[in-house]
Specification:
The protein is an alpha/beta fold and 445 residues long. It is 42% helix and 14% strand. The protein has 16 helices and 15 strands. Strand 5, helix 7 and strand 6 form a beta-alpha-beta unit. Helix 1 crosses helix 3. The longest helix has 21 residues.
Length: 445
């Protein structure tokens, strides 16, 4: 590949930009070995320190990784080629069960809430220097967290879960630090960590959440942070149980300097209790977002944590966007105060759709997981083949590669809009796609 692409530049910024352009364009492929620093310096006619600086920038941006004498190579998942490119284009006539979106029919209407927020804004305009957090929103958010056993702490409002997680990681870690993440796990998070110049170490997940032994190994090996999805884990639907929470707290007490981040994005769409880990370590953050319950375009998450963490996040936010618009906060507050969302009914609807598909697959001899949330995770022996066969059969599912590091292959099915009548045909198609030879034999019985 390097015979086809020539790295160019005289300064570190030019050299790093040349490499990053090539990675983004696919001219340098994931895993491609880059020239040794002295070799490239001689070729470009620059000082080796210049190339070393360029490589350092690329490492910090999550584009390349260096393994001592084995040299530097393009990361297997470089930040410039995020996992969103591992997706299925849904042609006309194909049923889309890949997107991960909530059911629009279960989302509350936003019109009245925003109209009321706008009217309040006309009466009480928010100006520079005003409190960045709507006081009543903070009160209701804190009351909800108190009811769920989340430790007390200051509050910040961010633009969604990923924004909050990014700011917490940046507040504590430096490039090269390692973050323990769920595997399979949220694809956007698996992209974000290397984009910050951080390393990922996978932690296995079952229906009850992260596996304690995997977490222990990761932290003992030097991981400085752990990110846990409390409920509605994407893509497996895992939900941290009471017994698992006790086991994880025990592990975290052995490593009290770990930065713990909890993501409760499933709040409002699940009917399983929260078992928070927050407060077990010195540095912690708990994030609760509204996108799954109230709509993905409502970019708001409430963050609490230890005082140092929240102060750092607020300070950096102040130097960037400043704050999440109070008109958005007031709209969310109105939705909460008016009880616009029937959480129990929404959670029950999603549970029924998950259970119908999981039961239908079990009747056909196919294992599937989905304890909470919008998705069902199905282990498959041949991920690429299963996705292609399902697409041919009229069903678009999400390839597991979007969510995996070292976990076995699988596919993710979003059941949010799946109807009862569609369940059996989808289950039949999955059986045929996962084990086509077995399905063919059955059809001749």
């Amino acid at each position: 590949m390097l015979e086809e692409y020539r790295i160019e530049g005289r300064g570190a910024a030019e050299i790093s930009a040349s490499v990053e352009r090539a990675v983004g364009a696919g001219q340098l492929e994931p895993g491609q070995l880059l020239p040794a620093m002295r070799e490239l310096a001689a070729e470009l006619g620059v000082n080796p320190n210049t190339v070393a600086a360029a490589y350092r920038v690329l490492r910090e941006r999550g584009v390349i990784e260096t393994a001592g004498r084995r040299g530097s190579r393009v990361r297997s998942r470089p930040a410039t080629t995020g996992r969103e490119h591992i997706r299925v284009d849904v042609p006309p006539g194909v049923r889309d069960v890949a997107g991960g979106n909530p059911d629009p029919a279960l989302l509350p209407s936003l019109a009245k809430a925003f109209a009321a927020a706008g009217e309040q804004g006309d009466r009480e305009p928010v100006l520079y220097g005003d409190d960045p957090v709507e006081p009543e929103l903070a009160r209701l958010a804190r009351a909800g967290m108190d009811a769920d056993g989340v430790p007390d702490g200051p509050l910040a409002v961010l633009s969604g879960s990923l924004d909050a997680i990014e700011r917490v990681l940046a507040a504590h870690l430096k490039p090269g630090d390692t973050v323990a993440v769920e595997d399979p796990g949220w694809g956007s998070l698996l992209d974000l960590v290397p984009a910050l110049g951080l390393r990922t170490v996978p932690v296995g997940v079952d229906d009850d959440g992260p596996l304690p032994d995997d977490v222990r190994r990761a932290l003992a090996a030097g991981a400085r942070a752990l990110v846990v999805t409390d409920r509605a884990q994407n893509p497996t639907g895992a939900s941290v149980s009471a017994s698992r929470a006790r086991a994880l707290r025990s592990v975290l007490r052995e490593h009290p300097r770990t930065l713990l981040i909890e993501d409760d994005h499933g709040h409002g769409i699940v009917d399983l209790p929260l078992h928070p880990l927050a407060g077990t370590t010195h540095s912690w953050a708990f994030v609760r977002s509204v996108a799954k319950a109230y709509g993905p375009d409502l970019r708001l998450a409430v963050l609490t944590g230890d005082r140092v963490t929240v102060d750092r996040v607020r300070g950096r936010q102040r130097l960037g966007p400043g704050w999440v618009g109070r008109i958005v906060q007031r709209a969310v507050l109105r939705l909460w105060a008016d009880g616009a969302l029937d959480s129990r009914a929404v959670a029950a609807a999603y549970r029924e759709r998950r259970d119908l598909l999981i039961d239908a697959l079990a009747e056909r001899g196919v294992e599937a997981r989905g304890r909470s949330g919008l998705n069902v995770w199905i282990p498959v022996p041949d991920e690429t083949g299963a996705v292609a066969r399902l697409l041919h059969a009229g069903w678009a599912v999400a390839p597991g590669a979007r969510f995996r590091m070292s976990a076995p292959p699988g596919i993710r099915v979003t059941v949010a809009t799946l109807t009862r009548d569609e369940t059996a045909p989808l289950a039949d198609a999955i059986v045929s796609a996962v084990a086509p030879a077995t399905a063919l034999a059955r059809s001749h019985v």
